[in-house]
Design goal:
The chain is mostly helical. It has helices at 2-22, 55-61, 63-73, 93-96, 98-107, 128-131, 140-143, 170-174, 207-212, 234-237, 242-246, 263-266, 283-295, 336-351, 359-373, and strands at residues 155-156, 163-164, 192-195, 298-300, 319-321, 324-325, 328-329, 332-335. 31% of the residues are buried.
Length: 374
Amino acid sequence: MKNFKLIINLVIVVSSLMFFQCTSEYTPIAGPAGADGVNGVDGVNGVDGVDGSAASCIACHSDSHRDPIIAAYLTANHATGSSWGRGTRGSCAQCHNNEGFIDYIETGAVAVADASGNSYGVSNPLTCTGCHDAHRSFDFDNDGNDMAVRTLDGVNLIISDYTIDYGNASNLCANCHQPRTNTPTVGAYPGKYLQTSGHWGPHHGPQTALLEGLLGAYSTFTLVEDIPAVKQATHRTDTGACITCHMGGTSDGSEGHTWNPNVAACVTCHDTMTEIPDGIGGLEADMATLAELLANVVGQATDGDNVPLFEADGTTPVPVVGIVHDGHPSTGLFDLKDAEAAWNYLYILEDKSGGIHNPAYARAIIKNSIANLE
């Protein structure tokens, strides 16, 4: 029995020591400090005044570089004007709304329209993010600087199967600066064109089509001047199109973000030029002549359902005078020849370069239009 009690007491003592050891921290006794270690090798000295691998990034992304660009952009039509107000509509959003433009470039379509035809609740002017996204490559030495332009792809025209491809950032411009409606054609009425809209014409941005030498209307014309072939305009073939003329030659830090042509870019080819003309010689007078002819064209009036109207005898057409007045087309039934001349007039009017984008083509389609109306 005594031995049993002794064993029990030993077990209790040992267990107490184990419990104390597991729940207590060991506190070492501090000794004297050791000797210092050997110093490491010095790093390589930097080069004063020269940025490292971030130099190319800093060159564009510094405030000092971006501020004059933003200031210039804020004065441009891409940032101002009233056209952005219509960009909520699905039919307009791809060019008149920053978000709609991004959606169209990235997916090929804008947001689905609601029952009222609106795809977006608000419409914002084009911003930096509309045209710029991410670099495709940071190897600028070998691949060049793409300026993070949102797309460099060629553009299929909305109204034809033709593809415009300038091979550079000008392709971005072509997504919007192209005709929205096609040249007139005969419909249900032989030899006639039924004009149903007071907003008819190539819309407000046919610049790239004119630059390319496309979409003039002359199928019914007897040509008095030859129509130049596609891609023959010097501004199309020699200079890289939009960005060279509209974003080149600046020295104010804006990098062309007003998109107003600069004489310094023009003198590269036109060495005697001191100011940019409003248009090519003779075209303004020809446009005035054509405008007068179009204002006196006689067609047949139509009702609100675009049905041609007749006098009480049932056979005499109710006349409408003028297929275009002050730059605005009239509704009615017109000879196709008259409609083609009207299209050409509106085409050059809406291009707004006074024929500079493609002088020979602009001059040819207007002179042929005049000759076939006189």
